[in-house]
Amino acid sequence: MRVDKMIGNTGLDTRKNIKRNAKKGALVINGNIVKDSSTKVDPYVDEVYYMGHFVEYIENIHLMMNKPAGVLSATKDEEETVIDLLDDFYLDYDLSITGRLDKDTTGLLILSTDGKLIHKITSPNSNITKTYEAITRDPIDKSFIEEFKNGVYIKEDDYTARPADLEILEPNKALVKVTEGKFHLVKRLFSNLGNEVTSLKRIAIGDLKLDPYLGEGDYRELTEAELELFS
After folding, report:
1. Contact at 8 Å (CB) between 18 and 7?
2. Which residues contact 105 (CB under 8 A, 6 or more apart)?
C-alpha cells in the first residue's frame, strides 16, 4: 500500500499535504526519513510516523448509531450533527453517512469510511430495504396496504413512489418497508393518502437491525458478521 494512502485513510491529512510535507522530512518509515509519499509499505509490519504522529492503520471504520431526534444527519453544520456525538477518536476519520434521516426522525444510521459500502446501501439500484416504525395522527386505514403496494402518487413532486410494504401493528402504528430514499418519503406516503406521521424511527437497513441495547445517541462499531450482510 502507498504510504500516503495509509496516512490519508486515518484522516491525519490530505494526500496533497502529505506529499508536500514528506519532501520537508515529515515522513519517517522504520526510523528513516522518506521524502517520497508514494513509497509502498506494509501497514501491518512497517512503523510509520507522520508529522511526529505514529500512524495506526485501520482499513475502515463502520459505526451503527441510534440517531436521536433534533440532531442533523450531516458531517458539518452550524446546528448539532451526528458527528458531534462521536468520541474524539473517530473525528480523525472521514466518515460518511448512509441514508440520512430527517432531523426529527430517530433510529438506525450507518457511518463509514468505506465508499463502496456507502454507495451500495444508498444506491436505488441496490434495492436494499429500509424498515421504519411509524406512528400516525389518525388510525391507519387498511386500504393503505394496497395503496403502498401499488405505489403512492406523490403529488407535490409529480411522481409515483416505488411499491412499499405496510404492516399495521396497532390502529396508529405500522411498519413500513421502502427501497428508495427520497426526502421525507415515508411521511409523504402517508400525507398523500390523508394521514400524518407524528413519529418515525428506522429500525433496519436490509437485514441489519438496530441494536436494541443502543440508547438514542449511542453507537458502536459493526461486527464482521453484520458487515457480511451487505456483501
Report:
1. yes
2. 67, 69, 200, 201, 202
- Return the sign of the alpha-carbon dihedral for residues 42, 45, 51, 54: positive
CA-based nearest residue to 222, from 1, 165, 206, 174:
206
pLDDT tens-place string over residues 10-36: 778 888 999 999 999 999 999 999 999
Burial class (CB in 10 A: 0-12, 13-18, 19+), 110: buried
C-alpha neighbours within 13 Å on the C-beta side of residue 66:
12
Positions marked catalytic: 102
Inform me whether the pLDDT recorded for 135 exceeds 80. Answer: yes
Distance CA 206, CA 121 (A): 8
Residues in the chain: 231
Q: How far apart are CA 168 and CA 163, in angstroms?
A: 16
- 13: helix, coil or strand? coil
In the three-class reduction of DSSP (H, G, I as helix; E, B as strand; rest coil), residue 12 is classed as: coil
Q: Which three cell numbers stand for residue 186?
A: 415515508
* β 96-98/62-67 pair status: unpaired
Write the DSSP string, 83-148: GGGS-GGGGGS--EEES---TT-EEEEEEES-HHHHHHHH-GGG---EEEEEEESSPPPTHHHHHH
Q: How would you label 89-108 residue by residue, b for 16+ Cβ within 10 Å and e otherwise?
A: ebeebebbbbbbbbeebbbb
Burial class (CB in 10 A: 0-12, 13-18, 19+), 115: exposed
This prediction's pTM = 0.80
Q: In angstroms, rounded to a whole number, what is the distance separating the alpha carbons of residues 77 and 58?
A: 27
